[in-house]
Amino acid sequence: MTRARGLAGVALGLLLGACSGGIVPPNGVSRTPPPRTTGRDSYQPPRQNNVPVRQPIPAVPLPPIATVPALGATTAAAAGVVAGPVFASLPISDAQARDALAAFRISCASLVRRTDTSGLTRGSDWQPACDAARSAGDARTFFAQWFETAQVGDGRAFATGYYEPQIHGARERRDGYVPIYGRPSDLVEADLGLFSDDLKGKKIRGRVEKNAFIPYFDRTAIEQGALDGRAPIIAWAADPVELFFLQVQGSGQLRLPDGTVMRVGYDTQNGRSYTGIGALMKARGLLGPGQTSMQGIVQWLHDHPAEGRDIMRENKSYVFFREQQGSPLGALGLPVTPAVSVAADVKFVPLGAPVFLSMDRTDANGLWVAQDTGGAIKGSNRFDTFWGAGDDARATAGGMSARGTAFLLLPIGTIARLNAARGFPAP
């Protein structure tokens, strides 16, 4: 899901990069909303238990290929790419291969037309595999026939998790609820590449005041009313902590008082930098043992509402939403698939490409497809795994923190072409 997330650090919870498909708890126990009594503001959302983090089953990751990566590299091509294991040797189940093939088909139209900012591929490189994918039968045979594995840099991977949260909300204003804003009318996005070739690919957001372009309102100003008359309110959230987590994920579901669901998706962001509050809380000694997961952070914020509000405001980033129909969408504007789609840095992974993760916990292992991005998902071999919605998704994503090795799947011949361009001899 397209997000402004500064997801996960040492654990998704630490940098706050997970989601909940179960309702983020407004604090309590009942899963069934009580009958609504008369009066517009009389409905109170149910209180719900915090779903515990799922404990991982340990695994032994494959070792990376020995290499000396370029320090400070800003793209995969600059970091260096070496051939990985033969695809047929990788421990990928038939089901994983089938699911990855289905997701790859969805990505193909984008792969062949997008400019790959990782420097690894050209759109035409993907066309043969995409053509073959339309009628491919056995998924493992397809990947083995059309792809080679490649290690970027040192190959050492770190993976966290995210999910689609479901929170309590309403379409109309209710006492104690907080607004969910749409795109402000005065928010301006400037493409700096139009002004200088050196700034190509860089954008900033802000607003115009007295003929000057200035930063847009930060989270504190917005919560104090700065958007009055500037942005539509598309819905209302029962709990500011729930809304904060919804913004971290960038999209999710609102459980309305009548039991129906409204889906909201990322529209834009205020241009301010993301700050992961989990890292701040840990550094300040606010989180005890077992509290550094997303679930632990949620509980602390609910237990300390005044201090929690101030901590959340240290993350100046603020996300604006639009109502969305259908499945959650990733950065490609295409549906993302639970346990298949993964977010990555487009400077190191071609968006839409398959990637094999061999990690130190079994649920992160297997074949994924890079179909999303994230504000804190930056750098070589950094991934954020998508788990869908529901309590299971929240339990997995909330504590996902896996380390191991990553191998990209690139069209056969890519590595030889890259090495030839760098003057390296063919293997």
TrEMBL record:
SUPFAM superfamilies: Barwin-like endoglucanases
Catalytic reaction equation(s): Exolytic cleavage of the (1->4)-beta-glycosidic linkage between N-acetylmuramic acid (MurNAc) and N-acetylglucosamine (GlcNAc) residues in peptidoglycan, from either the reducing or the non-reducing ends of the peptidoglycan chains, with concomitant formation of a 1,6-anhydrobond in the MurNAc residue
Annotated region described as Disordered, given as residue ranges: 25-49
Pfam family, one: MltA
InterPro entries, per database record: 3D_dom, MltA, MltA_B, RlpA-like_sf
Claim: Lyase is one of the keywords in the record: yes
Name of the protein this chain belongs to: peptidoglycan lytic exotransglycosylase
